[in-house]
């Protein structure tokens, strides 16, 4: 399983940690079969989600190729389908009050890791540009050949070089 941590430009110090769902089967299942205590996930290469079979509402955020959150749906009830054609991935969590991703915010990858603790930071504290070719081999193994996951918004940029 791959995990990721995302920073939010508009909220310095804020971070969202998610399980990365890479495969078709993982994306199809999403949070299905979990309870309201489940952690958030990101469905890569995805622009549409369904809540058929869900036992609880979801908060959903659609993110485009540049890491911009293009649409947010809060408390999406079971039995629905929502999509955003410009999205490249979708963040989901059990519906909850309080802070969540907001349309117009911009995400950037601050860490990727496999099982266990994060294996390093990506430009979060030291300001270095770390590109895909610089990723430690353990990160590549965690991604299990899904190097396309490093696109949107798992894109590795220095904050100042990201598209606006």
Nutshell version of this structure?
With 164 residues, the protein is mainly β. It is built from two helices and nine strands. The radius of gyration is 15 Å and the shape is globular.
Walkthrough of the structure:
- With 164 residues, this protein is mostly beta strands.
- It has a single domain (1-164), classed as Jelly Rolls, CATH 2.60.120.
- It has 2 helices and 9 strands, in the order E-E-H-E-E-E-E-E-E-E-H.
- The chain has a 7-stranded mixed sheet. It has a two-stranded antiparallel ribbon with strand order 4-7.
- Strand 2, helix 1 and strand 3 (41-44) form a beta-alpha-beta unit.
Structural class: mainly beta
Query: Oligomerization state of this entry?
Result: single chain
CATH architecture: Sandwich
Major sheet summary line: 7 strands, mixed
What is the CA-based Rg, rounded?
15 Å
What is the topological layout?
Elements: E1 2-8, E2 15-21, H1 24-29, E3 41-44, E4 48-50, E5 58-63, E6 69-76, E7 81-83, E8 89-94, E9 107-113, H2 137-142
Key phrases:
2 helices, 7-stranded mixed beta sheet, mainly beta, 164 residues, Jelly Rolls, 31% strand, two-stranded antiparallel ribbon
